[in-house]
Design goal:
- The chain has 288 residues and is mainly α.
- Helix content is 80%, strand content 0%.
- The chain has helices at residues 5-27, 35-57, 62-88, 93-119, 126-158, 165-190, 195-218, 235-248, 250-256, 263-287.
- The chain starts with a helix and ends with a helix.
Amino acid sequence: MSLSVLDYLLWFAAPALQIAILFFMVKRKLRAEFPFFFSYTLLQVLTVAVLFTIYRISPSNYFYAYWTSSALGVMLGFAVIQEVFMYAIRPYTGLRDLGAKLFRWAAFVLLLVGALLAVSGSGMSSKQLVLAIVDVERAIRLMQCGLLLFIFLFSSSLGLTWKNFASGMALGYGVFAATNLVMYSLRSQLGHGWDSSVSYITTAAYNLSVLIWLGYSAIPESARQRVRTDFTYRPIFDRWNQAAMSLIAPVAASEAIGSEHAYLSELERTVETIMAQSANETAKNQIH
């Protein structure tokens, strides 16, 4: 099957932009902060080079190479979700530790479900492996959409600016994941006659996501600071954090109360004290 000029453009646009992302991540010192995303981006660049070579030399092996690389990309994509989530809740030690445990269990469940789907039926065929990879990928796309929604709803409470690189990662993944899920649903309803159009739209959406990541990676460090100027303190996050610490390490949580690890609780009590004093002064003035 010959490729058109548009096919070549869509195929090589993403890796060309991702090479620039790798450059900016090293230059802006983002590689150490987001190692999984750096590895994911590097994998995508190498994958395109390998797949194109296999497509030109041995087309019969392209199917296996494509789905192998897709499985690797799905696993790294899950790791990136955890990376962004941990960065977002970094101020809350208890929630971060609890989140790490939940992500490990989620990874185990996804692998177990994928393995069961692959071996179900009459043996383990290539078609079943593909279906297993696709099902796990759809689950991770839903998680990526959820991550974007989480950042959108709680960015102010977490002190996370939309100029921050973690927010850009969530935005890029959210755009592609939402498009991918919609196109997957449409393909099952419209039939295989629309496969080509769906593939073009999905690829274009991924290129858009890569453009978003490139823009965020190029933002100077001074402009992509984590903390918002309109930071909004939410006591509920502190309560969740204390509850999570109690679940993970009850003794450590009890020892942390009143220490520097409970600074958010102290802040809450300070705010309540100031408000009470202000109310008392207002009442005294009204009496006089």
